Structure formats: C-alpha cells, structure tokens
C-alpha cells in the first residue's frame, strides 16, 4: 500500500519480500517463549498467548508469510495437542504456521531460563542496578539447551535450504552451532534487549564464548544504533576480530557478521481496527462500571512485573503527584495492569511484594469513601482487553528504567485513532527515539515525573491531537511488517 510517496508496509508487501528473498528455503523462527501455550483449565484445554514483546511482534509476521516457529513448550497441556513430531498448527482460530515445541526438563528450565538467561544476562544487559548472578552450573545447562534447540532446528530444515531467524538472549550460542553443522543456511538473530557497554559486559565470565557464538550469525540485529555500537566496541576490546566500520560488520576467522539496527514494532492496522470496534466501547463502559471510575481522569500502565519496568518509580511519582497537587484527589485514578513474570527468581518475587505494599501505602494515604488512587490488577490481559484500557486512558505511563524497545508505548499510540490521550515515556526506552512527541521523562527524577503527570492531565486538546497524530504517523509507517521486511531485505547484502 502507498500513502503519498511513502510506502506503508503490510502483510502483502512482506509476503512479496519473503517470496523474493527466501524463496523455497524454509523460514524458521526460534525463540524461547512460544506464541501459543496450551493450558489445562479444569478438564478443558485452553490456548493462551503470553505477555511477550517477541510474540507481539513475530506472530503477525508468521501469520503473514507462514513458516515454522521453534520454541519451548511450556504450557502444562502442550504435550496433549502436538502431533508425533511435536508440531501443532497455529493460531487456533485459523492455522497459518507451524509451532514446533521443544521440551525442557524442570532442571533445564531452572538453569537455562531462570538461571543464566534471567538472573545473569537480563540484569547484565539492563542498567537497572540489579546485580547479575553467574553460576557455572547454569551456564553448562544453558549451553546444552542451545544445542538441544539446534537439533530441533536442523531436524526441521532437513536436507533443504533454510533461513533461520533466532530471537534474543536465550540463544547466544545457537547460531554458531547451526552454522558449524550447516554452513549453507542463512542465520540472523534479533537481540530484543539492550546491549550493554563493554565495561558492564566485562563482568560476564563467559563473555568471549558468548561473543563467538553471536558471531556465528550472518546478520545480527539490535533495536537501536547505540546498541550496535556497544556491541562492536565490546568485540573490539574482548576478542580478536576485524571490525569494518564502513560496512558495520565484524570479520572473524574469514566469516563476516553484519551488525544492524532495526527498531521492532507492532501491527498498527490490526490494533487500529480492533480499537474502532464497537465491542471496545462496550468493554470500556463495563470496565468503568466495575472499577467505579465514574467520569474521573484515568491513567494506565501495562507491564510484565519486572524491575526494569520502573513500576516502583511510577508509584513513587504518583505519590508525589497527589502530595503536590491535592486538587486531583478523588479525580484521577491510575490503573496498573501487571502480568506476573519469572516469579521463581528472588528479585522478581521481592519486586512483586514491594509494588503491592507500595500500592497499599499510597491508597491508605489518600483514599476516600469511594475512590482509591491506584488500582493494581495482577493478571494477563488479552489484546482486545488491553486495547480497551488504552482507549479509556487519558494518559498511558511507560517508565522503564532501561528497555530495548517497549511495545506498550507503540500499542497505545496505535489504538488512539481518536488522536486523544497522552503518552508519558521513559527516555531510557528504544521507543523514545521514535516517539519524540511523547512527554519524555527520566523515571528516577520523581519530582519532574510527578509534574509531567499533571502536565499530561492538563494538556489542551489541540496539543494532544497534534502530538498523537505525529506519533501515529511514525508507527503506521514503521510497523512490524516493515521491520521484518527490512531484516529479510538485508539478507541480499550477505555474500
Ligand atoms: O524483552 C525481551 C523479552 O524476551 C520480550 O520479548 C518479552 O517482552 C519478555 O522478554 C518476555 O519475557 P519472558 O519470555 O521471560 O516471559
């Protein structure tokens, strides 16, 4: 589709690129998190989608161009629905691609996912002042799990040609293993989280092996250019390799890896359409009734409960806001939707408790007979519910301490076809580079954050509309089909 002189990517244009660049090769996506989980609910089996940026972005891509998605089968009913090759067709309402499940033992999940990936690499890459924990036993299992995934991927490719698109920090070693066994296949990897500066990365005891693993890729993508530069800088100081700053690539032992920024995005049109569905208006009325919001101003936050998301800082700013501007007591309610995440890790459990207690304290301090300042709903909401919350909000707050991209900010913008609503966005997210018409904040600067909440609630309608219109243009153009199309297009530059 073309808008003026600008091309707007959609499913069809992505399909064309896939046909031209991938052709007959098998298109295989690998991630830890699966896009659909099957879970028992009593005797019934339900299919649910997890709260995950990887899934939000890649499910529309696979729906558009088909392929095979290899992922950890983590639902308790996952084994019930697969065929003899551990495959199931998804999405359930209209199968468009194959989900190939990889089974992990409890011990493997504990060490590879909770351990090395999320207690080690996650805090290493996010500047949120949580110390990474590096445990040799976890690392050993992490390596084995990368090998296990490689076996499944190679089995899916068979003897044919393939293009493998690996996701994220769970698979630092996978691409190298794949290329060693099958040098003819093309392998790209997308690193969804920030890449730290070399000083921070230095503390990882297996840094060199990780870097060698990532250089197994033909194409290695990050969210923003700054993360690419951090990566090249880390390579330069850590292992022997030649960096070509002209081509933005690394050459090691005769093999080249292109390093590129590709900001990930959302399916703008789909969200825009759902937001305009009359069912959404009904849902908003229902939520307002149940939460007794009346005609109060409403703020919304949508996050996995993770210390990187700055929820404690957000509540702190809300406290300061009510303290400074008591005229809003009883007139503004903040709804925090929080999906429980990685709760078996100690720091996550502690953060969950802290958020809960903070909410109780703030509510105790300010509540009136029929109003409380913060409503915390700890559960996972489906896309349609979320869009109703986004549409209902006068302000959406994203206050991550550090975030590769943050798709909540983009979803909020995509759902505001009415050009209403204000986005308060942390400067420390990848999306702040594109959404410059949001009210940008430093989540650590509590007073300024509190004043920005006030500013958002008092912003004149014309200014809101102007800002929102501009942000919508940006996300409409830089949608997830463009993201995938550009990455696949980049493959032509490979030797
Ligand atoms: O940001 C990295 C990421 O993998 C995202 O895709 C996703 O939002 C989140 O982490 C999901 O975490 P998990 O799969 O551990 O629940």
> Total domains, how many?
2
> Residue-averaged pLDDT, rounded?
96
| CATH-defined architecture of the largest domain | 3-Layer(aba) Sandwich
Major beta sheet, strand line-up? 7-8-6-3-9-10-11-14-13-12
What gap, in angstroms, lies between the N and C termini? Answer: 31 Å
The geometry reads as globular
Distinct ligands, ions and cofactors found in the model: 6-O-phosphono-beta-D-fructofuranose
- Helical residue percent? 40-55%
Low-confidence region ranges: none
- Biggest pleated-sheet summary: 10 strands, mixed
Count of strand segments: 20
Structure commentary:
It is a single chain. By secondary structure, the protein is of the alpha/beta class. The chain has 2 domains: 2-265 and 480-494, Rossmann fold (3-Layer(aba) Sandwich); 268-477, Glycogen Phosphorylase B (Rossmann fold, 3-Layer(aba) Sandwich), CATH 3.40.50. It is 44% helix and 19% strand. The protein contains 18 helices and 20 strands. The protein has helices at 11-21, 53-65, 78-81, 106-125, 136-157, 174-181, 198-201, 207-214, 225-238, 268-275, 278-290, 311-324, 346-366, 383-392, 407-415, 446-458, 461-477, 480-490, and strands at 2-3, 6-7, 26-31, 37-41, 44-48, 68-72, 87-90, 97-102, 162-167, 186-190, 219-222, 242-244, 249-252, 255-261, 297-304, 332-339, 374-377, 395-398, 422-426, 439-441. The strands form 4 sheets. Strands 7-8-6-3-9-10-11-14-13-12 form a 10-stranded mixed sheet. A 6-stranded parallel sheet has the order 17-16-15-18-19-20, with helices on both faces. The protein has a two-stranded antiparallel sheet with strand order 1-2. The longest helix has 22 residues, at 136-157. The model has no long low-confidence stretch (mean pLDDT 96). 6-O-phosphono-beta-D-fructofuranose binds at residues 33, 52-54, 168, 192-193, 341-342, 404.
């Amino acid at each position: 589709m073309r808008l003026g002189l600008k091309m707007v990517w959609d499913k069809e244009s992505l399909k064309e690129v896939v046909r031209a660049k991938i052709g007959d090769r098998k298109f295989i996506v690998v991630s830890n998190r699966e896009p659909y989980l099957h879970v028992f609910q009593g005797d019934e089996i339900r299919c649910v989608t997890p709260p995950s940026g990887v899934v939000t972005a890649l499910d529309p891509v696979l729906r558009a161009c088909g392929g095979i998605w290899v992922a950890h089968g983590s639902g308790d009913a996952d084994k019930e629905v697969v065929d003899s090759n551990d495959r199931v067709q998804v999405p359930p309402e209209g199968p468009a691609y194959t989900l190939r499940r990889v089974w992990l033992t409890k011990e493997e999940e504990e060490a590879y996912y909770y351990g090395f990936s999320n207690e080690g690499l996650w805090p290493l890459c996010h500047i949120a002042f949580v110390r990474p924990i590096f445990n040799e036993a976890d690392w050993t299992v992490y390596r084995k799990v990368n090998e296990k995934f490689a076996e499944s991927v190679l089995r899916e490719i068979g003897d044919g040609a393939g293009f493998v698109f690996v996701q994220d920090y769970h698979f630092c070693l996978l691409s190298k293993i794949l290329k060693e066994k099958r040098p003819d296949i093309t392998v790209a990897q997308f690193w969804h989280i920030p890449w730290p500066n070399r000083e921070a990365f230095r503390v990882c005891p297996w840094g060199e092996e990780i870097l060698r693993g990532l250089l197994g890729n033909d194409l290695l993508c990050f969210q923003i250019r700054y993360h690419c530069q951090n990566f090249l800088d880390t390579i330069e100081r850590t292992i022997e390799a030649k960096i070509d700053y002209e081509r933005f690539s690394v050459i090691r032992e005769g093999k080249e890896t292109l390093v590129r920024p590709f900001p990930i995005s959302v399916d703008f049109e789909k969200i825009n359409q759902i937001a305009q569905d009359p069912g959404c208006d009904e849902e908003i009325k229902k939520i307002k009734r149940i939460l007794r919001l009346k005609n109060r101003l409403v703020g919304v936050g949508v996050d996995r409960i993770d210390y990187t998301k700055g929820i404690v800082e957000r509540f702190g700013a809300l406290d300061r806001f009510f303290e400074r501007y008591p005229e809003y007591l009883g007139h503004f309610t903040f709804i925090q939707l929080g999906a429980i995440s990685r709760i078996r890790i100690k720091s996550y459990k502690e953060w969950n408790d802290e958020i809960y207690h903070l909410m109780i304290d703030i509510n105790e301090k300010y509540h009136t007979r029929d109003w409380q300042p913060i409503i915390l709903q700890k559960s996972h909401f489906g896309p349609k519910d979320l869009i109703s919350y986004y549409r209902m909000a006068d302000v959406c707050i994203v206050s991550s301490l550090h975030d590769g991209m943050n798709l909540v900010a983009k979803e909020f913008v995509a759902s505001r076809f009415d050009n209403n609503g204000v986005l308060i966005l942390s400067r420390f997210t990848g999306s702040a580079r594109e959404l410059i018409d949001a009210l940008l904040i430093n989540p650590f600067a509590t007073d300024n954050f509190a004043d920005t909440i006030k500013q958002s609630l008092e912003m004149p309608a014309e200014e809101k509309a102007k800002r929102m219109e501009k942000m919508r243009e940006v996300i409409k153009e830089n949608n997830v089909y463009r993201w995938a199309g550009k990455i696949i297009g980049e493959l032509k530059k490979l030797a």
